[in-house]
Amino acid sequence: FVLILIINNVNAFGVSYSYLCPENPVIVSSGGEAKVEFGLQNMNVKEGEDVNVFVRLKNNEGIASLDNDRYLVRANTKDTKAFVTLKIPENVKTGKSYDVVLDFIVNPKENAQGVVFGIGNEVRICVSVEKYVGPVLSPEEIKDKNLKSILMGFGILIIIVLAVIVIIISRRKNKRFIWS
Hints:
The protein has one helix and nine strands.
């Protein structure tokens, strides 16, 4: 028995996001709201091999809604953004957790012939209800904030060093030192 498969179209679709279950849940307070961002990518394909992606909430536990359920992801791009809004009811106790599951499904080409396989990614988001402690930052925002703090510290250090140099030079001039 010989099986020959001919594949004439390969999709390289992927979904990226910062909140991994259960290590890094989305933290929302009771009565609060959060928007989760996903990056949709269609890399290493021929130009013109754009894909249509449908997003479906498999399990939203009554707290999730889609901003949009269809996205066009252009060939060789990784910057198409998709968003899910999470709204926690007012009366939910601290410590409650939710699992939100989404399907990102690539729609096969309309004119495809023969056997057509669709691809998709299932994404699970863990949501934890906690006491409000301020805005939740994504790992990228934390890195940006740390970098800004480091640069600001170096800037202040440079200003202090320059001020010390100016003070030393002005005192030497006032004492009428002759530079040799």
